Automatic annotation (TrEMBL), chain A:
Residues 19-184 form the DUF1989 domain. PANTHER family: RE64534P. The lineage of its organism: Bacteria, Pseudomonadati, Pseudomonadota, Alphaproteobacteria, Sphingomonadales. This is Urea amidolyase associated protein UAAP2. It comes from the Bacteria. It comes from Aurantiacibacter flavus. InterPro entries: DUF1989 (IPR018959), UAAP2 (IPR017791).
Automatic annotation (TrEMBL), chain B:
InterPro entries: DUF1989, UAAP1. This is Urea amidolyase associated protein UAAP1. It comes from the Bacteria. Residues 53-221 form the DUF1989 domain. PANTHER family: RE64534P. It holds the Pfam family DUF1989. NCBIfam families: urea_degr_2.
Length: 211, 278
């Protein structure tokens, strides 16, 4: 039997295993105690990621509460992803990447006009993925907040300079998250083609839920 | 409950007289109506004054401001922390986006010349003057849980109100709900980022009188809470009053140096000008 590198080290029973196509949204409910593994299948793929509490979706991921509580901008193994009410929503229980970003936010058609020019307005963007997925459950633009970018690298220099630089990910690298409450996971498999976050080539990612 | 037979306020007219006798009372933290300020910048007519208010330690305020107006924040005693939310007044689903603000400008530190960007690729307000230099776009504000952990409680109705609950009240005065209260920026309390990602807070207290002036580039609703920074290392809940002054001003000219400073910023202004093309 061949070993599946995507599930290596995962304990428990796999209850969901899905390949999210390049550029696509993904929404999934994950119960408290379950583990979500994200696999960067081909490498250098940014995974834009939001969380909502299933019990009260006005409680949602807060980058500011998360970085304040840990006193550090980067998300690493052990980082607790916190809500806008300051409560733990999920914990990064393991990752084969040094750190992940949560200050860069998501690309949008509108911010693309600022960053690259109005010729990019019609290109697909993460915010449109988030909206498409959220709208299926009655959430809209008011529910959009700055997100996590798994497998994305955004260093901050001494003078405050900051930018999305070449990925620190590689094929098959993973991040594991344990849900600390019943959560709704909303993902945009980033379609950006104007910066190095996806090595200029969006690719599929794999989502595995185990219990 | 008072004894109705002996209380001097036992009838409505006495209660009315008692209430009316308070007129003209001055306290440190209050709005001044009509607004009055003897320190407006040169060239600003007194008639253009829109808002003069001192926000208490732990207080909040909010107001709709027209495009072109200036909002001056003064850290009176050197220990204020102005946590700011901004909404597009006519379409509040458009609001400050801290991630786009730092990403689009390729820089995380707020200061003179920087723009506060919306989630729709437009500039809501720009920073025209800054004598403080210690600001923060990363940490957001305190909430009931962080204040309870640090100070024992953090209720609006208690002695140590938290920033998020203040921003919720301020936003709700404009018909907005919990889901609308988005990540904020903090003026006067700063953070710097170390190479390993560590957040170093700059809490002071500082010299009094430091100020920031913002220019509204769209019709906006501003909501401001004045509560201790969430990473304030002091054990005691410490914050000092914040003075707010706003006056009318011209819409940003096409040759404005802040408008022209960067290609990304220029496109944010062009998107604003396009929005108001009607």
């Amino acid at each position: 039997m061949t070993v599946d590198p995507g599930t290596e080290g995962l304990s428990g029973t796999i209850i969901h295993d899905e390949l999210v196509p390049a550029r696509a949204p993904w929404l999934h409910h994950v119960a408290k105690g379950q583990t979500l593994r994200i696999v960067d299948v081909e490498g250098n793929q940014a995974v834009d990621f939001l969380l909502y509490s299933a019990a009260d979706d006005v409680e949602r991921y807060s980058a500011q509460d998360t970085v304040s509580a840990q006193g550090n901008l980067f998300l690493r193994k052990g980082s607790v992803l916190r809500s806008n009410e300051g409560r733990p929503m999920a914990t990064i229980t393991g990752t084969s990447v040094d750190y992940h970003d949560t200050i860069g936010g998501a690309c949008s058609c509108e911010s693309n006009t600022l960053r690259y020019g109005h010729h990019t307005k019609a290109q697909h963007a993460c915010v449109d993925n988030f909206l498409e997925a959220n709208l299926t459950e009655g959430r809209g633009k008011r529910d959009m907040v700055p997100n996590i970018n798994f497998f994305m690298n955004v260093p901050v220099e001494a003078d405050g300079s900051l930018g999305i630089v070449d990925g620190i990910s590689a094929p098959g690298l993973t991040v594991d998250l344990r849900a600390e409450m019943d959560i709704i996971v909303v993902v945009s498999n980033c379609p950006q083609i104007n910066n190095p976050c996806n090595a200029f080539n969006p690719t599929p990612v794999r989502m595995i839920v185990s219990v | 409950m008072s004894d109705t037979a002996t209380s001097p306020l036992a009838n409505p007219l006495a209660a009315r007289d008692h209430a009316r006798a308070m007129a003209g009372t001055k306290v440190e933290a209050m709005p001044m109506l009509p607004p009055e300020a003897d320190d407006l910048p040169e060239g600003v007519p007194a008639d253009d004054l829109l808002w003069e208010e001192t926000v208490a330690a732990g207080g909040y305020s909010s107001r709709r401001l027209p495009r072109g107006s200036r909002l001056r924040l003064i850290d009176l005693a050197g220990d204020a922390c102005a946590s700011l939310l901004i909404y597009n007044a006519e379409m509040p689903t458009e609001r400050l986006n801290v991630a786009d603000t730092v990403k689009v400008q390729w820089n995380a530190y707020l200061g003179e010349g920087k723009l506060l960007l919306s989630d729709m690729g437009r500039v809501l307000m720009s920073i025209t003057d800054d004598s403080a230099g210690t600001h923060d776009a990363f940490c957001g504000t305190s909430n009931a849980a962080t204040n309870e952990a640090k100070y024992g409680e953090g209720r609006n109705s208690g002695a140590y109100p938290n920033g998020r609950d203040r921003l919720l009240l301020g936003s709700s005065k404009h018909g907005l709900l919990r889901r609308d209260v988005h990540p904020c920026v903090n003026f006067f309390k700063g953070t710097t980022i170390e190479p390993d990602g560590t957040i170093t807070p700059q809490i002071g207290p500082f010299e009094g009188g430091r100020q920031v002036v913002l220019r509204a580039e769209m019709d906006v609703i501003v909501v401001i809470a004045n509560c201790p920074h969430v990473l304030d290392p002091r054990d005691t809940w410490s914050v000092s009053p914040l003075r707010l002054t706003a006056w009318r001003g011209a819409t940003t000219a096409l040759d404005d140096p802040i408008r022209l400073a960067t290609p990304e910023g220029l496109r944010a202004f062009e998107n604003v000008e396009d929005y108001y093309r009607r």
